[in-house]
Amino acid sequence: MPVVWSDRCLLHDPGREIWVGLPTEATEVPARMDRILDTLARPDLVTAEPHDDEILKTIHDEGLLRYLESAWDEWQAAGLPDDPGQTCVVPYIFAHPGLGGPLVEPTAVWARPGFYAYDTMTLIGEGTWDAARAAVDVALTAADLVREGAPAAYACTRPPGHHACRAAFGGSCYLNNAACAAVALQLERVAVLDIDAHQGNGTQQIFAGNDAVIVGSVHVDPRTGWFPHFLGFAHGLGAKNLPLPPGSADEEWLDAVLSLVTWARESRAQGLVVSLGVDAAAGDPESPLEVTQEGYREAGTLLGSLSLPTVFVQEGGYDLETIGPLVLDTLLGFEAA
């Protein structure tokens, strides 16, 4: 299976997040990619090819793209790293629909983040745009390889993307890599199956009502206190959501993965994109699920049983000791199907 990457994905490194108003150490760090690539130990890595914005503009609102590309430069030009000393782009006020409307993009540099961001933890630093745009190129290159005849390809992307919506970013995600890959496959119907521990709310929002791309997600139940909190329940956006209670382990999780696979088969999908989050694993700091490494290998086998042209796109997974082996076992399970 080709493994696609870009060293530009390492440029995003804000160093911290803002959670309940306090700076906390970031978990979505460049070392995640290093650990995956070290484990895969592939001497023949495919370097991502640059792509134009044609597909990206079908996925995201142009206002969001313009903002993300310019946000750091505008923040720096406004002097905010010096006064008040905030070295990353952080929102302080949000364009909440409860304000009424119409809501207008603000002119103040310090207010603009809240027009596009929906949380305070997804900071923008000097290299964020370059890394996020490179991650899109990684996903598109992987899709190119599959479209050209490879049975499957793995896109080693960061920052992740499945929480990025059409016109808003959050959840440590800026641009939706998996959504771009799904469109790039150029098939009549593509299934995006998201096995990250958190619901792929951005991907589901982007493709809501689009029969050409169907989206299913197995994840921890947001009602139990987990991101994205406000959505991701069994009903919503016409997608297939399978929320699980905290503590769910291999049996419950694999039953849900099988349900997604069966749904994709019955929906007559011609291609598959897997949002491969490995944060459902036991011991991951960002999830209360308890899936084992063997469970991930079996999930790979279930996904491989579809026998579809497949792009794996990396999403979550935050335990640096286990992220590499979990990814490897999933891909090995897929290839063994």
Q: Which key features would you list for this structure?
A:
337 residues; alpha/beta; eight-stranded parallel β-sheet; two-stranded antiparallel sheet; 10 strands; globular
Question: What do you see in this structure?
Answer:
With 337 residues, this protein is α/β, with parallel strands linked by helices. Helices cover 34% and strands 14% of the residues. It has an eight-stranded parallel β-sheet, with helices on both faces. A two-stranded antiparallel ribbon has the order 2-3. β9 (271-276), α9 and β10 form a beta-alpha-beta unit. α5 (128-147) runs parallel beside α6 (177-184) and α8 runs parallel beside α9 (293-304). The longest helix is centred in the middle third of the chain and has 20 residues, at 128-147.
Secondary-structure map:
Layout: E1 3-5, E2 16-19, E3 22-25, H1 31-40, E4 46-47, H2 54-59, H3 62-77, H4 113-116, H5 128-147, E5 152-155, H6 177-184, E6 190-194, H7 201-206, E7 213-220, E8 240-244, H8 250-266, E9 271-276, H9 293-304, E10 310-314, H10 323-336
Parallel strand pairs: 1-4, 1-5, 5-10, 6-7, 6-9, 7-8, 9-10
Antiparallel strand pairs: 2-3
Query: H/E order of the elements?
Result: EEEHEHHHHEHEHEEHEHEH
Helix content: 25-40%
The Cα radius of gyration reads 19 Å
Mean pLDDT: 96
Q: Structural class, from secondary structure content? A: alpha/beta
Enumerate the spans where pLDDT stays under 50 for 5 or more consecutive residues: none
Morphology: globular
